[in-house]
């Protein structure tokens, strides 16, 4: 990917700072950050100071999020007269369009990347929604089909934080805070309200989770201790880099499920320096250090929580982002794949690469499945047969990365997803080979 900045842009685009939720400080010009204060009477270089708050001012210290941005123009100068803008395939909760899909476990093949031009905005395809964007609860799961870069255009999402997991092709996020490059196996998280544009150097497909609630954070580790799972130092936030570009530019905002667009005369990605703990970040999913059963049984998948977005109820996440990375299976006298189950939480699953042990066939990279609130699921007949008869030597599930967006709220399937030709009509059949093996005469 070419990283030469166009004329008029700064060269400082390569760097990241490590840590999760740190109070970061970064400046693209020396002395652009005021020292020891946020709001000097006059900022260096004629910049404007602006605070971006991701939490209420009064949130407890541990969840209080804000950053100070030192920019060429304040955001009030980056807006004009907004007009409504149609992006009909990007749906928000509550989704009021009825569809007749029966309740049952659902699975889809990958949606092919089209030949025609789609940007990160026009290519967003909503699969499920849950909760209500306006009451800041719930989420949406999307597939982004991207064949073209956003050019001379910027977007911000007032409804949600966005977690983006490229599955095919790379995505570059040019944000107010700096540049984030992501490839399959990595994620980017763009906080609510942060302006950005997505660029591609070839066709790309990504899983996207919109989090309408409080921000993703790291789960508690409890008795696991201070290390393993997702480690703080592996999260990377970008160093400041800015565009000083006075040219026609489109700004689109998603607000209350509605898109609004305006034209302005300059790029809003004009932040020369920033400090604070509210910033986009990336994470390489292969850095996740899984912890699991080392003698017997199959632990609950919560041991694989990479990030969690808590709700007001303790232990009841608005969203858990759960990984199934490569790992050794060593448990003795154990049915090693996931057990059969029904669950309060609703599970949207995707596969970035490799094979998932409960569904060796039919669940393919780029595909996705939905096991909704209190609907039964578990290993397919084939996986059951193999796992119940396999010799239990240590075995590595290698080169695989599945994940789950798991929410406390039931997920509604959009009309678009319900009518996709990729919806597998025969998904339920994957369990039809489970024979009755009960025999009261045999133990
Ligand atoms: O349904 C799934 O495949 C996800 C899952 C995995 C697991 O190891 C235990 C429970 C669970 O929901
Ligand atoms: Fe499950």
TrEMBL record:
<comment type="pathway">
    <text>Amino-acid degradation; L-phenylalanine degradation; acetoacetate and fumarate from L-phenylalanine: step 4/6.</text>
</comment>
<feature type="binding site">
    <location>
        <position position="347"/>
    </location>
    <ligand>
        <name>Fe cation</name>
    </ligand>
</feature>
<keyword id="KW-0479">Metal-binding</keyword>
<dbReference type="InterPro" id="IPR011051">
    <property type="entry name" value="RmlC_Cupin_sf"/>
</dbReference>
<dbReference type="GO" id="GO:0005506">
    <property type="term" value="F:iron ion binding"/>
</dbReference>
<feature type="domain" description="Homogentisate 1,2-dioxygenase N-terminal">
    <location>
        <begin position="16"/>
        <end position="285"/>
    </location>
</feature>
<dbReference type="GO" id="GO:0006572">
    <property type="term" value="P:L-tyrosine catabolic process"/>
</dbReference>
<dbReference type="Pfam" id="PF20510">
    <property type="entry name" value="HgmA_N"/>
</dbReference>
<dbReference type="InterPro" id="IPR014710">
    <property type="entry name" value="RmlC-like_jellyroll"/>
</dbReference>
<comment type="function">
    <text>Involved in the catabolism of homogentisate (2,5-dihydroxyphenylacetate or 2,5-OH-PhAc), a central intermediate in the degradation of phenylalanine and tyrosine. Catalyzes the oxidative ring cleavage of the aromatic ring of homogentisate to yield maleylacetoacetate.</text>
</comment>
<feature type="active site" description="Proton acceptor">
    <location>
        <position position="298"/>
    </location>
</feature>
<dbReference type="InterPro" id="IPR022950">
    <property type="entry name" value="Homogentis_dOase_bac"/>
</dbReference>
<feature type="binding site">
    <location>
        <position position="377"/>
    </location>
    <ligand>
        <name>homogentisate</name>
    </ligand>
</feature>
<comment type="subunit">
    <text>Hexamer; dimer of trimers.</text>
</comment>
<keyword id="KW-0585">Phenylalanine catabolism</keyword>
<feature type="binding site">
    <location>
        <position position="341"/>
    </location>
    <ligand>
        <name>Fe cation</name>
    </ligand>
</feature>
<dbReference type="Pfam" id="PF04209">
    <property type="entry name" value="HgmA_C"/>
</dbReference>
<feature type="binding site">
    <location>
        <position position="377"/>
    </location>
    <ligand>
        <name>Fe cation</name>
    </ligand>
</feature>
<dbReference type="InterPro" id="IPR046452">
    <property type="entry name" value="HgmA_N"/>
</dbReference>
<dbReference type="GO" id="GO:0004411">
    <property type="term" value="F:homogentisate 1,2-dioxygenase activity"/>
</dbReference>
<comment type="similarity">
    <text>Belongs to the homogentisate dioxygenase family.</text>
</comment>
<keyword id="KW-0408">Iron</keyword>
<keyword id="KW-0828">Tyrosine catabolism</keyword>
<dbReference type="GO" id="GO:0005737">
    <property type="term" value="C:cytoplasm"/>
</dbReference>
<dbReference type="InterPro" id="IPR046451">
    <property type="entry name" value="HgmA_C"/>
</dbReference>
<dbReference type="InterPro" id="IPR005708">
    <property type="entry name" value="Homogentis_dOase"/>
</dbReference>
<keyword id="KW-0560">Oxidoreductase</keyword>
<feature type="binding site">
    <location>
        <position position="356"/>
    </location>
    <ligand>
        <name>homogentisate</name>
    </ligand>
</feature>
<feature type="binding site">
    <location>
        <position position="395"/>
    </location>
    <ligand>
        <name>Fe cation</name>
    </ligand>
</feature>
<dbReference type="GO" id="GO:0006559">
    <property type="term" value="P:L-phenylalanine catabolic process"/>
</dbReference>
<protein>
    <recommendedName>
        <fullName>Homogentisate 1,2-dioxygenase</fullName>
        <ecNumber>1.13.11.5</ecNumber>
    </recommendedName>
</protein>
<feature type="domain" description="Homogentisate 1,2-dioxygenase C-terminal">
    <location>
        <begin position="287"/>
        <end position="438"/>
    </location>
</feature>
<keyword id="KW-0223">Dioxygenase</keyword>
């Amino acid at each position: 990917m070419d990283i030469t900045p166009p004329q008029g842009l700064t060269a400082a685009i390569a760097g990241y700072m490590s840590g999760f939720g740190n109070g970061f400080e970064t400046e693209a010009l020396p002395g652009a950050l005021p020292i020891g204060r946020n709001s000097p009477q006059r900022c260096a270089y004629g910049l404007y100071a602006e605070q971006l708050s991701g939490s209420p001012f009064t949130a407890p210290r541990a969840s209080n999020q804000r950053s100070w941005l030192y920019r060429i123009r304040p955001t009030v100068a980056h807006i004009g007269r907004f007009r409504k803008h149609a992006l009909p395939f990007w749906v928000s909760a509550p989704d009021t369009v009825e569809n007749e899909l029966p309740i049952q476990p659902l699975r889809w093949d990958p949606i092919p990347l089209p030949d025609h031009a789609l940007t990160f905005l026009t290519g967003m395809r909503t699969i499920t929604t849950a909760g209500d964007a306006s009451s800041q609860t719930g989420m949406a799961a999307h597939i982004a089909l991207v064949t073209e870069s956003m050019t001379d255009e910027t977007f911000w999402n007032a409804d949600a934080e966005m977690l983006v997991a490229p599955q095919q092709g790379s995505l570059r996020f040019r944000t107010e805070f700096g540049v984030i490059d992501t490839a399959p196996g990595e994620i980017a998280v763009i906080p609510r309200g942060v302006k950005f544009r997505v660029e591609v150097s070839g066709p790309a497909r990504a899983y996207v989770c919109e989090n309408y609630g409080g921000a993703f954070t790291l789960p508690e580790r409890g008795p696991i201790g201070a290390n393993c799972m997702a480690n703080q130092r592996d999260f990377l936030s970008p160093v400041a880099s800015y565009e000083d570009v006075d040219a026609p530019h489109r700004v689109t905002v998603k607000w209350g499920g509605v898109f609004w667009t305006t034209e302005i005369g300059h790029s809003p990605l004009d932040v020369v320096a920033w400090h604070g703990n509210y910033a986009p970040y990336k994470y390489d999913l292969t850095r996740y250090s899984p912890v699991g059963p080392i003698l017997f049984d199959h632990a609950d998948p919560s041991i694989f929580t990479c990030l969690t977005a808590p709700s007001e109820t303790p232990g009841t996440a608005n969203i858990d982002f759960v990984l199934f990375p490569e790992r050794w299976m060593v448990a003795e006298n154990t049915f090693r794949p996931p057990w059969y189950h029904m669950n309060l939480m609703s599970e949207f699953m995707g596969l970035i690469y490799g094979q998932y042990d409960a569904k060796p066939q039919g669940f393919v990279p780029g595909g996705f499945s939905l096991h909704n609130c209190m609907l039964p699921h578990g290993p397919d007949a084939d996986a059951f047969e193999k796992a119940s008869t396999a010799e239990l030597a240590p075995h590595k599930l290698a080169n695989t990365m599945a994940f789950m967006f798991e929410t406390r709220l039931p997920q509604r399937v959009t009309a678009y997803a319900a009518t996709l030709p990729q919806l597998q009509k025969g998904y339920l059949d994957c369990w039809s080979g489970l024979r009755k093996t009960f025999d009261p005469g045999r133990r």
